């Protein structure tokens, strides 16, 4: 049994033996490891459980992932806990309210018995629904989950209780406009404050802390984007000494979320309880990107302009792409990058190597390009309606325009 409880929270974006092996040096002293987004088919859960027990001595409890309807080969969601040195019991979540979501692939409740406190600690491992603009019902789903959190916090406010996981919401940053994530964060804060709970991250972390990173259009760095993962404790847990630190030295290629290391122990004169702790200052590192993938159409080589809409533009292009398109002028052999530029080059008659007509057959003037000749012929004052060909009848020389011919005649042929 333990006098100090060590636990971790991590959105794994899919659990594998390789990921567990790479993460285990962060978890080696941990009593509890809470994972979100296991994305495991049911047949693989036993394999992972046996691997954990045989290699590292951890027992495990899984709440199953769900199979995608659009692609049966893929699985989503799923939460689990790995544990040793403590006794863990799975608690089933039930409600008589049919509108109260308690989906096991998103929420797990376990009772942990250890020597740290006089009674068990309830842990809620949650994967809150992320914002998905393609789903009209997502906003209503998020509000129902906030109701679930409210109900469970009210029911367990007087117990030793810890919420942790991926909440998919973040505090509004200074100078920024409110969005769906910041609005959800404000609603969550009101709920937990009403029942005496406290967001440990909001208490202990400076604003420069991040728990989630994401790719950027640049191929140089991964820009830090958001804080989405939190630890929330009941009033009795706040009387303990608390640590809660994101580990930036982990292999960030394993997931776009940062592993968070936490611990609790009895507060002393040297190890203060949470209300008296100072905020932790952590400087986000510059993350060099080694896995930059250039957006490009595999059929015709089209590359969308870099920006937030790049992926969307590529998807639109893929929907109507018919294959490779000619981009090299057959006359001058110059590469024009895309079919549009080549078409413009040909239509305007700018190719020096092609035999485009550039001389007006009516007035004999050379307009240097077929495009300029078309404009000349389209004008209402075109020379074909009013002027003869500017050719001297004596020397049979074409002077290009009637003004030049008049000058020639004036000074003698």
TrEMBL record:
<dbReference type="Pfam" id="PF00096">
    <property type="entry name" value="zf-C2H2"/>
</dbReference>
<dbReference type="InterPro" id="IPR013087">
    <property type="entry name" value="Znf_C2H2_type"/>
</dbReference>
<dbReference type="Pfam" id="PF03372">
    <property type="entry name" value="Exo_endo_phos"/>
</dbReference>
<dbReference type="InterPro" id="IPR036691">
    <property type="entry name" value="Endo/exonu/phosph_ase_sf"/>
</dbReference>
<protein>
    <submittedName>
        <fullName>Zinc finger and BTB domain-containing protein 49</fullName>
    </submittedName>
</protein>
<dbReference type="GO" id="GO:0003824">
    <property type="term" value="F:catalytic activity"/>
</dbReference>
<dbReference type="InterPro" id="IPR005135">
    <property type="entry name" value="Endo/exonuclease/phosphatase"/>
</dbReference>
<feature type="domain" description="C2H2-type">
    <location>
        <begin position="328"/>
        <end position="348"/>
    </location>
</feature>
<feature type="domain" description="Endonuclease/exonuclease/phosphatase">
    <location>
        <begin position="9"/>
        <end position="257"/>
    </location>
</feature>
